[in-house]
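Co-fold these.
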Amino acid sequence: MADVARMPRARRAPPLLWTGLAGLAAALFALALLLRAPIPGDPATARALEQVVLWQSLLPRAAVALLAGAALGLAGALLQRVLRNPIADPSTLGIASGAQLALTLSAIYAPLLGGLVGAVPREMVALAGGLAAVTLVLALGWKRGLEPVTVALSGMTVSLIASALSAALVLSHGEYVMSLFIWGAGSLHQQGWGGAITLLWRLVLGGAAALLLLRPLTVLALDDASARSLGMAVHGARLLIIAVAVWLAASVTAEVGVIGFIGLAAPAFARLGGVRAPRAMLIAAPALGAILLWLTDGVVQVTAAGGADAIPTGAATGLLGGPLLLWLLPKLAVVERPGLAAPAARRLRRPLAGLALLVVALAAVAALALLLGPSYDGWSLATGDLLADLWPFRAPRVAAAAAAGALLGASGTLMQRLTGNPLAGPEVLGVSAGAGVGLAAVLLTVAAPSVAMMMGGSAVGALIALLLILAFAAATGFGPERLLLGGIAMGATGLAILSAVLALGDRRAFLLLGWMSGSTDRVDGAQSLAALAVAVLLIAPCLLLGRWLDILSLGGPVAGALGLPVTRTRLVLAAGAALMTAVATFFVGPLSLIGLIGPHLARLMGFARGAAQVLAAALISAALMVLADWLGRTVAFPYQIPVGLFAALVGGPYLVWLLRRGPAKGA
Amino acid sequence: MSARLSRRRLLAGLAAAALVPAAARAAAPAVRVATLDWALLETLLAIGVTPVAAAELVLYRQVVVEPELPAAVADLGLRGTPNYEALRLLRPDLIFGSNYTSWADPKLRLIAPVENISIYGPGARPYAAAEAATLAVGARTGRTGAAEALVAGARARLAALKARLAGGDGRPVLVINLGDDRHFRVFGADSMFGEVLERLGLANAWTAGTRYSATAPMGLEVLAQIGEAWIAVLPPVPAPARKMLAGGGFWHALPNVRAGRVVELAPVDPFGALPAGLRFARLLAEALPFAGKAGSLG
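Predicted complex below.
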């Protein structure tokens, strides 16, 4: 990992290509100018208005596209250099989502808090959110030396949490938040030069800071030890550069919303064109970012119908993200390493007794959720008739939560064993995002879909995503890192599609938001029994795979040397993990973090062997999910907090703590 | 039961005919009803039925505003995740839903019979659908007289307002929501607002298509195409949009804005029934300066 990436040696054609792309962007802009609808009314007024539209809307929009693209390109180049990670950018590090969440919070709560919050500029709010997100991501990845795959995983997880939180906030504030939909998918419409001027200043200042930090940047390309021996305050310089990059990205988010993956694409294309030196990169990446965003916005404008863009520009660039990541991944220098999962903190001498204890705990939590609950007259312990009354509503959701939790726990264990990465949760596999896209397709094509149709849609979506990920992983020999990154790429594409649908801002978007924040209460008795049956059917075979899991944790080469058919084993485990995730996602939404936390808890408790860890993680996760579901429906009675969201809120901080204090494995 | 009902029906009919909500509320409901749909909730209240429970009442009080909601109605939580347990404990006899809540039917049917009455949908004409929904809700709750009175009263009120607006300037009206300082959405002919405009004898300035009542968010520059229209801005107005209304360069270059043809209305539910339609008509007539001032607008 000494260098950023193994890029092909410089090829010389690209400058021509860039010029061509810039020309194309300009041509699209000219076309958009020509195609714009004529303004009716008397000629004098119309002519004056034409001028206003041209000077106050269309030209500033082009300027903002160029400036925002340049700022994102610069931010991406800085982040990639300082983290020595070719897939770092404001999207993959969660900066954009964090900034958006902060803006959502302030938009909703500013009216309540009055002048206090209202006086804080949007840019500062976005910066705070972006910094919080990137801090979280780096904290999660710290133990593993900020190694690229781990950082991308943490970034995706943080992005998911932030999106789910924003979704729940939007849901609970109903009609009031059209603008939140728009920001979620970055729209470049302008009505004056204010945005362009703001971004210009940020870009100039950020660029100047980057130039000042050029020497540290050059040194940072070396590894930490060499840099330190040259007298650099390595961490200080790194943090300064990261702060500049976050500020640039947060400013763009505050002005125009989330614009995905320009920061990833621009430096990648620059490297492809042979740009290597830091100074050249600081010029090439912003230039390419500007061209890319202008080009995308040109396409969006030319295809706009009747004033409404077919999809917001930010969602359009988001669609680039997936393919781009897939293309970059094979170039990533990844090292196969033995996983964290191998030695547990301590080892249970009698794992069977431990498992029995977990079964009792799960039963206790389930009993609590079934019997105790609030009503309009206060809390009550349901027995007899009351219990019979409430049973049809409580039992299915308890069962569904338990099944989903168990599936996520088992799936997370498989993923972490398979990849040797402590941050490999089922949520980042991309299957959930596929399920969301399938659901969106049903909502957009059917007027009043039933629960069964929505489930069918997400099943098909999840299946397609699963096949795509497996196909990609197969093409690259099922390396665990590739599998993870393929999943991340799929997830990024799925989220971009979802944000484009959400930008419609109509009632279908609200149904989709409901799924994104996770809800167990639509499940009926038969569906919950089916979920339990599927959980048993999918988890039971894992118990026979204990030896595979134990050996795989030693890393691919060792496992191969021990006679394990590594590729086939990985395929089976990955397919199993994905299936489990797909089923669980129906019930609790795309994110809960429980599939990430369950396996860690199982390991901390001393379940060291593969089969025992799978079972323990399934039981722990089931209990946690039932508990989260119960809390979600009781703490704000009669209002309900979505289970996935509640689990993420509790689980997120705990996860950070867990990973910070846990035994340092990996690098 | 029918004798008692007829007396109630008469009372309710009288009350609704007078459109005095307080009097309407005085009549106790014949059946214990609950609803997850706001349009049906306002219809129920307007014909004098106080449901035992309805969804998302905190936001209802901000967005729908009238008919005023009695404190006795229990809140079921968000419309997207209603609290079935709470509803079960309240033991309603009948639950009203719509195509927006039909996904919840299997669970609701465990509690009480569900009657789905939809007003909005692709290609629907919401005003006629709202009239039909009013009559259906009235028939189901034994308030046929009150429902008929509400339908007839709404027509009469709209006709009266139309006469008052007849001396207008002939300009069309554009009904919009502002998303932020750069985006808006507009309500088309297939929205409740569009249908009410038509009944008020006003042209809807938005003649292009929509996606379910309103368009997807558009850039503000589209407004340059519609310079001759009156612009009616519906709440909420987010903080950036508020700033834009005060000093945005592009906004203040628009001919309608320069000529003062912009009115800001109080909140109205864009997916409401007859009470919301009437509220919109009244607020618009109060806001448009050319409306005749004879009599009370209330």
